[in-house]
Design brief:
Length: 174
């Protein structure tokens, strides 16, 4: 299904199922999000189309320290005005955008799909980083062992202040 902006002549409500998604979080990490149902109301506005909607989400993201899957859930809500790219105001160098204009999108396409809407909003909704717990010890930086499941066999890292002290002591002897 597509929501074609030019075809929206009056306020119209849609309820569309959206398949499960895997979102690329960068650095070879991803978030898995279960299938959901998008509820959206489309209405014509001067020169474009207004979309207002919401959807619940549930999924998992990797812990920012140990990479264990962490459950995430919530409800995403959005209110967006879609306009053709040709209607975009001229770009100015580093200007502050008023809050009421942050919902204005100037797009090349004449439509949007429910999947694209959900994906866009999930990238905005999901936290940058989650932890499996406040006391997560993370992975050993040398061998990669999960330190939450027990120690690793790596020797403790020497205190770098000793190296500085040895360097200082060596220069005094010369």
């Amino acid at each position: 299904m597509k929501i074609v902006f030019a075809e929206i002549a009056k306020e119209t409500r849609f309820e569309e199922p959206v398949a499960a998604q895997v979102l690329d979080l960068g650095y070879s990490y991803s978030a898995s999000v279960e299938a959901t149902v998008l509820e959206v109301t489309a209405a014509p506005i001067q020169g474009g189309c207004h979309l207002r909607g919401s959807f619940p989400y549930r999924g998992t993201m990797p812990c920012g320290r140990c990479l264990t899957p962490v459950p995430v859930s919530g409800e995403a809500r959005f209110s967006l005005n879609y306009y053709p790219a040709s209607a975009a105001p001229p770009r100015e160098e580093e200007t502050e955008v008023p809050l009421e204009e942050t919902e204005d999108l100037y797009v090349e396409e004449d439509h949007v799909t429910p999947e694209a809407l959900v994906t866009q909003q999930l990238y905005l909704e999901l936290p940058e980083k989650v932890l499996c717990g406040d006391g997560c010890l993370g992975l050993c930086i040398r061998c990669g062992a999960d330190r939450n499941r027990g120690g690793c066999s790596c020797p403790p890292e020497p205190d770098p202040r000793w190296d500085a002290l040895r360097t200082l002591d060596h220069t005094r002897k010369e």
